[in-house]
Amino acid sequence: MKKRLIFLFCLLSIFTFSLTEKTDIVGPTSKEQILKHFPEWADFVKAYSPDPEIINQLKNINRSVTIEVFLGTWCPDSKSHVSEYFKIMESVDNPLFFSNYIGLPRDKQARIPFIKGKDIVRIPTFIILIDGLEKGRIVEHPVDSLERDLLNFVSESDRAETYEFCQSNYHADLPLNCIDCHLKF
């Protein structure tokens, strides 16, 4: 009888866990798909208040900008910063800004097909492309704020300012040459 109760309890626990577990989004995705499967992210979007002055500057960018966003729906930093990004892009509403979202699995080996050739080490990673060339990255956490960091990359700043910005980012202590990987423009 005791074994049956333990077995029943284990079976019930497994069944309950499988009903409440969310499936992570892996591969190309969209803002709508993320918010549909993870509605709690909408609270972060709603709560974030980007700097209106920076938003106005981003609205006035008059060249095509593509931002590749590598995220994990299981990752707290992605939940926070990608939600902020959603709010920023809603506020900017610039038709010249294009966003591509790629969900990554928890398992680092399973990420390889999604990040091949992109040198993604931490998530979220925002890769800013202008005219198809990488202008810069925001890796894991913004340096100042996500909208200010974006503006630093998409504005007409010169290479020296951009290089200083890259060196101040979280990966500056790694043996990387920012000119090689961030300033391909």
Short summary:
This protein has 185 residues and is α+β, with helices and mostly antiparallel strands.
Q: How would you explain this protein's 3D organization?
A:
By secondary structure, the protein is α+β, with helices and mostly antiparallel strands. The protein has a single domain, classed as Glutaredoxin (3-Layer(aba) Sandwich), CATH 3.40.30. A five-stranded mixed sheet has the order 1-3-2-4-5. Helix 4 runs parallel beside helix 7. The protein is globular and about 40 Å long. The protein starts with a helix and ends with a helix. The C terminus is likely disordered.
Record the SSE blueprint.
Elements: H1 2-20, E1 27-29, H2 31-37, H3 41-47, H4 52-59, E2 65-71, H5 76-92, E3 97-103, H6 108-115, E4 125-130, E5 133-139, H7 146-154, H8 159-168, H9 178-181
Parallel strand pairs: 2-3
Antiparallel strand pairs: 1-3, 2-4, 4-5
Helix pairs in contact: 3-5, 4-7
Which structural class fits the helix and strand makeup? alpha+beta
Number of helices: 9
- Low-pLDDT sequence parts: 5-20, 158-165, 181-185
Helical percentage: 40-55%
Task: Please tell me the overall pLDDT.
Answer: 82
CATH architecture: 3-Layer(aba) Sandwich
Number of strands: 5
- Largest sheet properties: 5 strands, mixed
Q: Could you state the order of secondary-structure elements as H and E?
A: HEHHHEHEHEEHHH
Task: Give the total of domains.
Answer: 1
CATH superfamily: Glutaredoxin
Instruction: Please report the first level of CATH classification, the CATH class.
Output: Alpha Beta
What proportion strand?
A: 15-25%
Envelope shape? globular
Strand order of the largest sheet: 1-3-2-4-5
Radius of gyration: 20 Å
CATH topology: Glutaredoxin
The end-to-end distance, rounded to whole angstroms, is 71 Å
